[in-house]
Write a structure and sequence with these properties.
Strand content: 5-15%
Strand order of the largest sheet: 1-2-3-5-4-6-7-8-9-10
Distance between the termini: 56 Å
Structural class: alpha/beta
Order of helices and strands: HEHHHEEEHEHEHEHHHHHHHHHHEHEHHE
């Protein structure tokens, strides 16, 4: 009996070791080749490394064309919208009654030239990285206050957002009131988004963007820097931290996720008895698993389309302003608060201002970038991209997470520990949704500053509430 027990324990130890160091083990960061995303005709030319000032100044012809299209879509002859079902809000998608409110405001009240001035408030530039032009804002402190240290911070947005998402947090981070540290902000548009050039060849996924943005930061003179990201910016920033820990000092995310094999194991184990493993606030967001799976099925239809046929949906969205507005703004309803689907206006008003929602839509429209932006899904969800096996590569630098109230995409502190080995700050906010910097700028900025100050002071890891 004793021998049988010893053999059983031995086999269990071997099996556990096999799990932890085999299929569930950590991987090593791959070395990426040097990529080129520009047109083939310029591949052998020397890259222009200059940093060129840029201002948004949209041709009047584009604006006139937009008005013509909106007038047609709102006219009795051109209106092809199907009325919503009785008693339905946003459960079937964007409510067409409210869409008429949005497009009427867009046509009759929205002033692009005034909004353009606001978007040009902070310095903007372009520079060529890996063969394509990258648009970015570069903002430094305007205050006379002397901070003990100024840190370079790369802010990365996602889809269907843009660099516009960060405008409210800029002064809160460059000129904070109660902090010894402030930031020099680098806010790029992702390739194929807004005023950044799209890739001219297939293959530019989230991993390849990680390399591109390392070069971007080096171009601007920063060998060591900090990153903040949400949505795609979260994944790209995580890849950068895993691939280039010698350059990325620390990483802050407002969408903390992990696809590490042990994260999937944690999800399954915790589903058996969640209260043994997780904070009581986190449990309703993630369990029972059937609820989470239902939410994913309801909300990820766009994901599958963009991961498989981005150019097909792009045809429709590039030609119809009301279609583009519905497709983009709908996400600002359900991703901010899924309960808002029951409302005719999707809960968007008064939580958001129509002008601000349309600013983001306009960045996609005037740059004609909706198709190229959605290609990021099809370029990332490929065998080629999965072959880098970065999901198994842990992030070993300090990480801070802001978990907002209504972002179903974020994972709990328990779930992400195998990916982030130095999770020194995990903050739960009872406010906000997926677009945290845009929705709750004060809470967002405070958590970024708290995380960096915690790091500077070399304090112990903490979990907190905001």
């Amino acid at each position: 009996m004793g021998k049988l027990l010893i053999v059983s324990v031995g086999l269990l130890v071997v099996f556990t070791a096999w799990l932890l160091y085999g299929p569930f083990g950590d991987g090593e960061p791959p070395k990426l080749p040097d990529f080129y995303w520009g047109p083939k005709t310029k591949e052998n030319q020397k890259e222009d490394t200059t940093i060129r000032p840029f201002k948004i100044n949209i041709d009047e012809k584009i604006l006139a064309d937009l008005k013509t299209r909106l007038k047609l879509e709102l006219s009795p002859e051109g209106n092809r919208l199907t009325p919503p079902l009785e008693g339905i809000g946003f459960e079937y998608g964007f409510n067409t009654k409210f869409l008429k409110t949005v497009t009427t405001h867009w046509l009759e009240k929205y002033d692009w030239r005034a909004r353009e001035k606001l978007l040009n408030k902070y310095p903007q530039f372009k520079t060529s990285i890996n063969g394509i032009d990258i648009h970015f804002q570069h903002v430094k402190s305007q205050s006379k206050k002397q901070y003990k240290q100024t840190r370079p911070l790369l802010l990365l947005h996602g889809w269907p957002g843009s660099f516009f998402e960060f405008q409210k947090v800029i002064p809160l981070l460059t000129d904070p009131v109660d902090s010894d540290t402030n930031f020099e902000l680098l806010i790029p548009s992702l390739p194929g988004y807004g005023f950044s050039e799209r890739s001219h060849r297939p293959g530019l996924g989230a991993v390849e963007m990680a390399q591109l943005f390392l070069k971007f930061m080096q171009r601007l003179g920063h060998e060591k820097f900090y990153i903040q990201g949400g949505d795609w910016g979260s994944l790209i920033g995580t890849h950068m931290a895993a691939l280039y820990p010698e350059h990325v000092v620390a990483l802050h995310l407002n969408m903390c996720t992990s696809s590490h094999p042990r994260a999937h194991l944690r999800i399954l184990i915790a589903s058996l008895y969640p209260s043994l493993f997780m904070n009581e606030v986190d449990i309703p967001k993630h369990y029972p698993l059937s609820n989470l799976i239902t939410k994913l099925l309801e909300e990820l239809g766009y994901f599958h389309i963009q991961a498989t046929k981005p150019d097909t949906v792009g045809v429709a969205l590039s030609n119809s302003p009301s279609g583009l507005a519905a497709y983009i703004i709908e996400k600002f309803s359900t991703w901010t608060n899924m309960e808002w689907r029951k409302k005719e206006n999707g809960g968007l008003i008064p939580y958001y201002q129509l002008d601000e929602l349309l600013d983001n839509v306009m960045i996609y429209w005037v740059s004609n970038s909706i198709t190229s932006s959605t290609r990021l899904y099809s370029e990332t969800l490929t065998k080629r991209e999965f072959a880098w096996d970065l999901d198994r590569v842990p992030v070993r630098i300090p990480v801070g997470c802001l978990s907002v109230a209504s972002d179903f995409a974020s994972m709990s502190e328990f779930h992400v520990k195998d990916k982030f080995h130095q999770l020194i700050s995990y903050t739960r906010s009872n406010k906000g949704g997926h677009f945290a910097a845009f929705e709750i700028p004060e809470i967002f900025a405070k958590d970024v500053l708290n995380f960096i100050n915690l790091l500077e002071q070399k304090a112990k890891p903490r979990t907190s509430e905001l």
